[in-house]
User: What shape does this take?
Amino acid sequence: MTKAPVEDQRRLLDVQALDTRLQQLAHRRKNLPEQARVAEIDSQLADLNTALVASRTAANDLRRELAKAETDVEQVRTRAAHDQTRLDSGAVSAKDAQALVSELESLGRRQGLLEEVELEVMERLEAHEDTLAKLDEANQKSLDARAAAVAELDAAYAEIDAEAAGVATQRATAVTGLDAALVALYEKVRAHLGGQGAAALRAGRCDGCRLDLDQTAIEAIRAQPADEVVRCEDCGRILVRIPEKRVTE
Assistant: This one.
């Protein structure tokens, strides 16, 4: 059996309270609402990035298509201008003049069709560029929102870390001078029981597992010397006996 001064056993509850607070802070740090907000914005940014890539690709494709349509129109215009210059020069035969007139009519029809294609591509490109501009705007707003959310998250981290540092300092002070064997046992039990290695025994109940000890166990504990380190038979935690208040008449 392990023995430790009664006062050390009672001080162990102070250490446990500080360890519990450190656990609470660590849990809070991992589950901040600001983290969920950053994750939500990151998801939005991922969706926006996918949409932006698709929209930019479509816009670039349409720009190339428009450039080709403009080139096609310009080629027809150039050819028509050349034919018109020849025709206007009067230096061609009647047969050649007739052929030039026929070609100019054909080129005119061809130019009309190509200009319709050019206009249709321009309209589609304009629509895509409008969509792209809106996506860029939404993306920037999300980036700004993320920066703000990250700043809030960092502030929350800093606040928790500052408190945790203070609690850790208090913990180091609280454990100083305690019986080494008692502390070693406490750490061992705490590691196996989710962070709580010691609990008070009040009115026959373990504050750790919240179970009432049977009368036989209570009597057995009462029979132990005050400096004997006792354990809860249900959860295995170190039981720190708290003197029962006597009712005076």
Q: What stands out?
A: DSSP finds five helices and four strands in the chain. Residues 48 and 139 are 6 Å apart (CA to CA). The mean pLDDT is 93.
